[in-house]
Design a protein that fits this description.
- The chain is α+β, with helices and mostly antiparallel strands and about 260 residues long.
- A hairpin with a 2-residue loop joins strand 3 and strand 4.
- The protein has one domain: Nuclear Transport Factor 2, Chain: A (Roll).
- About 40% of the residues lie in helices and about 20% in strands.
- The protein is elongated and about 65 Å long.
- The longest helix is centred in the first third of the chain and has 21 residues.
- It has 8 helices and 6 strands.
Length: about 260
């Protein structure tokens, strides 16, 4: 049941990040301070300096790469000092790609009262960006860079989306569907994709294996232009349009976006 819990937690975290608030699924493995993301110049990701010359797509790709590495480190545990140091560096780079003034303004107006009373820009960025890896963690391993779409809404605002899926969940669902070939329902009729009996058989088998039927999502990043260039102001999850999720899912099979995400 571990993967299903991860999906639900990630969905709730995505909604919390989109609102600029907090959620209950805080990662206890994070370093014990909110002050590790102090901006110190433009972030450099795999040799690319993401300064004022970087495009929204460049910044979004850099952020996603950093989030993927953060998730990988968290899953393996901080362990020795080298991993802990790398985690600090990755988290700091994520913070430098965040739109500090925008995040502070959103967090300060938090209607749910989840943000601490004493809040400055550094702490707001640290708190909000700390949830971004958890929000995308269920899907980030199956990121589809070729699906990235960029929409510049105005001179100072852009919207980037990219499809992703959990490869392990997809593999298990493919195995489940393959195992149903040639089987019959309770009335002795062949199980046919697109029927309610087939959908129910898939749901039951997926439940038994602890995998959710919604293994894909669209990662959405809103960016704003600041003095140092394009920066991420919000990260959330939306329903996927990848054929691998909705297209391979059969009618009535219940492939929907995870509960609690925003559809953008």
């Amino acid at each position: 049941m571990r993967r299903r819990h991860g999906a639900g937690c990630a969905a709730v975290l995505a909604l919390a990040c989109a609102a600029g608030g907090l959620a209950a699924c805080r990662d206890s493995r994070r370093l014990p301070t909110d002050e590790t993301t102090e901006p110190a110049g433009p972030a450099t990701v795999k040799g690319r300096t993401l300064d004022e010359r970087a495009s929204p797509e460049d910044v979004a790709r850099g952020l996603l790469e950093l989030l993927a590495r953060s998730v990988e480190i968290r899953r393996g545990g901080l362990g020795g000092p080298q991993r802990a140091e790398e985690y600090v560096a990755v988290r700091s780079a994520i913070g430098r790609l965040a739109a500090g003034p925008h995040i502070l303004a959103t967090a300060s107006a938090d209607p749910h009262g989840l943000m601490p009373a004493a809040l400055n820009q550094q702490r707001a960025v640290a708190i909000v960006t700390d949830y971004w890896p958890a929000a995308v963690g269920y899907y980030i391993e199956g990121l589809k860079p070729e699906s990235m779409k960029v929409q510049e809404i105005g001179p100072d605002e852009a919207f980037v989306s990219v499809e992703a899926e959990n490869p392990h969940a997809r593999q298990m669902l493919d195995e489940i569907r393959a195992s149903l070939a040639g089987q019959r329902d309770a009335r002795g009729h062949p199980l046919q994709p697109g029927t309610e009996a087939y959908a129910e058989a898939v749901r039951r088998a997926a439940l038994a294996r602890g995998v959710g039927l919604s293994f894909g999502a669209r990662i959405e990043i809103m960016l704003v232009r600041e003095e140092g260039g394009w920066r991420a102001a919000r990260l959330s999850l939306g329903p996927t349009s990848v054929a691998g999720d909705r297209g391979r899912g059969q009618p009535g099979e219940g492939l929907t976006q995870p509960m609690g995400t925003q559809s953008g």
